[in-house]
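Notebook entry, cofactor series.
This is the third protein in the set we're modelling with a bound small molecule. For this one the ligand is zinc ion. I'm keeping the input format identical across the series so the outputs can be compared line by line later. Sequence and SMILES below, as received.
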Amino acid sequence: MNRAASEPEVRDAIAALMRRVYRAGMTTTSGGNISVRDGNGTIWITPAGRDKGALRGEEIPGFHADGTYEGRHPPSSELPFHRAIYAARPDLGAVIHAHPAALVAFSIVRQRPDLRDLPEAAAVCGRIGYATYATPGEEELGMLIAGEFRAGCDAVIMENHATVVGGKTLEDAILRFETFEHAAQVLIGARALGHVAAAEGSPDQAPRAARPDWPEAQPPVNSVLGEAEREELAAMARRCAAQGLAPAALGCLSLRLGADDFLVTPGGVALNTLQPGQIARIREGSREPGPEPHAAAAAHRAIYLADPGTAAIVTAQPRDLMAFAVAGVKPDVRTIPESWILLRDLPLLPAGSPLADSDGFARRFGRECPAVLVRNEGIYSTGACLLEAFDRLEVAEFSARSLILGRSLGDMRPIGERQVEALRRKFFPS
Ligand SMILES: [Zn+2]
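Returned structure with ligand:
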């Protein structure tokens, strides 16, 4: 939210976000609350007792810094802890609280999600705090939560309750909230696959991939070229987020324009609202002025250089594939014919391998290996066009989901060698 945004804009933005959280299944009709502190110090917060699935901007009450109140409805009963957080952290402009299932699961077993196995998500979520139980709506709860925020946490697990996150802006806060819940789901899936979490420690210790520096092109790249491709790439990025394949804050898509020339989505920008003008272009190792390419762009370039047949790449962290990537378990994609035909093999490579040795990593890809899973990082799916790379990502995630669901039914029995050979003869005749 822009600090200079008008009152109706702020109220509409809060209502729209609450509807989005509800539609995404991350709150119930009565649960959760969202607030914004505007540039005048007014706190706008969702009202008590209204339908979260149909909230409108004019229903949002406001509390001005001079103590006056405006609005037709009483505020959320959790206003005290929102106020306490803002008092503790002058840098924050938005607070989101809700009861999404995976984070509630952590809160009722009284554990703090350890994001060290998910460095990209850890970078979005910031430091994770833990507030012991207190009665909802009471000042004590506000003090406990605000204490964690004052200590520098941006996301807090509320014991036997749920979570609360802060952000500089509303967009910042929602990306943190969605990424935090997604990470919790991944960690629960990884646990189901036998992953034992490391001893609890600070998520600050999570290894961060060094972002490669791309020199700016001199003279500037002609960015008028590739206009239609920018539209195509932005639309596919939004679709990836909408289909739940890439949380809005995580993931990178690219599309080849020439031999050593490709468009790539930026880092730190929400995929679910990505516009063509936010897309970066890298030609012969230089980037056009404008958005900073995503950190995965270096690996994408290496793959394009290694294989002229690759026209598009999607790097993503869908929930069930990430459970495998965190647990260090290679998914056996000989589940149904379609999975084997699209994925062939899905190797699991060590964490950090795309950046540590991008040429060696790129050479793994080819006809026999169009997609690769990287430990703690996600899937790299390639294709002869953007739709094929996306389809391959979808098929891989559906396969991972089936593998996890099937575990409670019995042992998986993959398609046998003879059946694979028959698929090979029919679909990949040499
Ligand atoms: Zn609550």
